[in-house]
TrEMBL record:
Molecular-function GO term, any one: nucleotide binding
PANTHER family per UniProt: BCDNA.GH03377 (PTHR43818), NADH-DEPENDENT DEHYDROGENASE-RELATED (PTHR43818:SF12)
InterPro entries found in the cross-reference section: Gfo/Idh/MocA-like_OxRdtase_N (IPR000683), Gfo/Idh/MocA_oxidrdct_glycsds (IPR050463), GFO_IDH_MocA-like_dom (IPR055170), NAD(P)-bd_dom_sf (IPR036291)
Pfam families attached to this UniProt entry: GFO_IDH_MocA, GFO_IDH_MocA_C3
Protein's organism: Mucilaginibacter achroorhodeus
Domain of life assignment: Bacteria
Record-annotated Gfo/Idh/MocA-like oxidoreductase N-terminal domain positions: 34-157
Domain GFO/IDH/MocA-like oxidoreductase: 167-298
Protein name in UniProt: Gfo/Idh/MocA family oxidoreductase
C-alpha cells in the first residue's frame, strides 16, 4: 500500500479526539496540551526537552526514562522546576496513562524494539532518525504502523519542516534550477566524536555511535538528513549505491569509520549523482549542501541558503521576482542571492510544531514511517556498500515505502 493510499484509508480522525481513546485530557490540565514521555536522556534527548519547553502551549514533558542514572540526574538538573515521573525501564513509562506521546532518542539499535512497544501501548510516537537499524526492521515497522491508523508516527528528519527547505523543494518543483544532475553534501567535524565516560564499563553505552552493534556511524547520524531531504524534494530514491571509507584518523578501538564517502545514482525525472561525505578530521566545510542544475545552484546551510543563477540565464532575459523574492537577481559568484530574508530557527522546533498538529488533527506528518523507512533503507544500503566494499542496489521489495 502506498503512503498516499494509507492516508486516505486511515480515516484520519479530526480534532483532538484522535488523542483520546483512553481518557487523554480528562484531567484538569490545560486543554490541548500533549503530554510527552522522553525515552533516552543523552545529549539529543535533553536537547529535545529544551525545545519542548519552548512550546508550553503545546507540550508538557511529564516522564523521562534512561538506563543510566547520571543521565536522569543531568536532565533533572537542567529542568529544576519540572516534575517528571522517572523510569529506568521504558515499559514502566509506557504504562503511565498520563503520557499521550513518546519521544525515542536512544541508540539506533534500540529504535525498533522500543518503537514497537510504544505503538502497542497506544501512544503517539516521535522517533529519532535514522528510523531503524536495518532494512527488515524498517519494513516491519511500516506494516505495524499501517495496522494502527489512529496513532501518529513522526521520524526526526527535521529539515523537512524548515521554511527554508520547503522553499528549496518548491524551487526544485517549479524548475528554477533547470535540469538537476549533481548534489554535493558534506557534514564534517574535527574531533574524535567521543563523549566523556565516567566509568570504563560504560564505554559502549555512552560511545555507542562508534560500534557497529549499536550504530550506523556517520551515515546514519549525520548524512541521513541530507539523504532524506533529497528523497523528499525529488520524490525519489537511489537505484545504485557506492561507498568507500575507513578509520583513517582515530585508531582508538572504534569500529565505525571516521572518514566516509558515498555516491548514489538516481534515475527518473532528474538523472542525478548524489555525493555524501563526512570526516572527523577536518571542519572547514562543516555542513555543506549544494544542488546543481542547468539554470543555477542552491547552496544550503541548516538555517540559510543562497541561489546562484548560471550566467547564461541572466544573459537571456534576466530573472525578476521569481526565485528568491528579490526584485532582481544579479549574478554574483561570491555572494549569491538569499533564498529567505533571514535565518530560520533550529529544525527541531519546526518538527515538533508539526508533530503537535499531526497529533491533534490526526494527519500524516511529512516525515513519517514511509519516508523514514525509505531513508533507513538508503542508509543501511550505503553502510553495506561501505563496510562490504561492494555496490548495492535498490530492490523491488523496498517499493512499499
Amino acid at each position: 500500500m502506498e503512503r498516499r493510499t494509507f492516508v486516505k484509508s486511515a480515516g484520519l480522525l479530526a480534532g483532538a479526539s484522535v488523542l483520546n481513546p483512553s481518557g487523554i485530557f480528562a484531567e484538569a490540565k490545560p486543554a490541548g496540551i500533549v503530554r510527552i514521555g522522553v525515552i533516552g536522556c543523552g545529549d539529543r534527548g535533553k536537547g529535545i526537552i529544551q525545545v519542548l519547553n519552548q512550546l508550553p502551549d503545546k507540550f508538557k514533558v511529564v516522564a523521562i526514562c534512561d538506563v543510566l542514572e547520571f543521565r536522569i540526574t543531568e536532565t533533572r538538573q537542567q529542568n529544576k522546576d519540572a516534575k517528571f515521573a522517572v523510569y529506568a525501564d521504558h515499559r514502566g513509562l509506557l504504562d503511565n496513562k498520563d503520557v499521550d506521546a513518546v519521544v525515542i532518542s536512544v541508540p539506533l539499535n534500540m529504535h525498533y524494539t522500543i518503537a514497537v512497544d510504544v505503538l502497542n501501548a497506544g501512544k503517539h510516537l516521535y522517533l529519532e532518525k535514522t528510523m531503524t537499524y536495518n532494512i527488515p526492521q524498517a519494513l516491519q515497522l511500516v506494516k505495524l504502523v499501517k495496522s494502527k491508523p489512529k496513532q501518529v508516527v513522526q521520524v526526526g528528519h527535521q529539515y523537512r519542516y524548515s521554511p527554508l527547505y520547503y522553499r528549496v523543494k518548491e524551487m526544485i518543483n517549479k524548475g528554477y534550477l533547470g535540469d538537476i544532475t549533481q548534489i554535493d553534501c558534506r557534514w564534517d567535524r574535527n574531533g574524535n566524536w567521543r563523549r566523556p565516560v565516567p566509568s570504563p564499563e560504560l564505554e559502549r553505552q555512552i560511545n555507542w555511535r562508534m560500534y557497529k552493534q549499536y550504530s550506523g556511524g556517520l551515515m546514519a547520524e549525520l548524512l541521513s538528513h541530507q539523504v532524506d531531504f533529497i528523497n523528499w524534494a525529488f520524490e525519489t530514491h537511489p537505484q545504485q549505491m557506492f561507498a568507500t571509507g575507513g578509520i583513517d584518523t582515530y585508531k582508538d578501538g572504534r569500529e565505525t569509520y571516521d572518514n566516509v564517502q558515498v555516491m548514489f545514482r538516481y534515475e527518473g525525472l532528474h538523472s542525478m549523482v548524489g555525493n555524501f561525505g563526512a570526516t572527523c578530521a577536518n571542519a572547514h566545510d562543516g555542513y555543506l549542501f549544494k544542488i546543481k542544475g542547468t539554470l543555477g545552484t542552491i547552496s544550503l546551510l541548516t538555517d540559510e541558503g543562497k541561489f546562484y543563477p548560471e550566467k547564461r540565464l541572466l544573459a537571456d532575459k534576466g530573472l525578476v521576482d521569481g526565485v528568491t523574492g528579490a526584485t532582481r537577481i544579479v549574478w554574483n559568484k561570491e555572494g549569491g542571492s538569499p533564498i529567505l530574508p533571514e535565518k530560520t530557527k533550529d529544525g527541531t522546533w519546526y518538527a515538533f510544531n508539526e508533530f503537535y498538529k499531526s497529533v491533534v488533527n490526526g494527519t500524516l506528518p511529512d516525515s513519517n514511517v514511509f519516508t523514514g523507512a525509505r531513508t533507513a533503507i538508503c542508509v543501511h544500503s550505503a553502510n553495506a556498500a561501505l563496510y562490504g566494499k561492494m555496490p548495492m542496489a535498490w530492490k523491488p521489495e523496498y517499493n512499499v515505502v
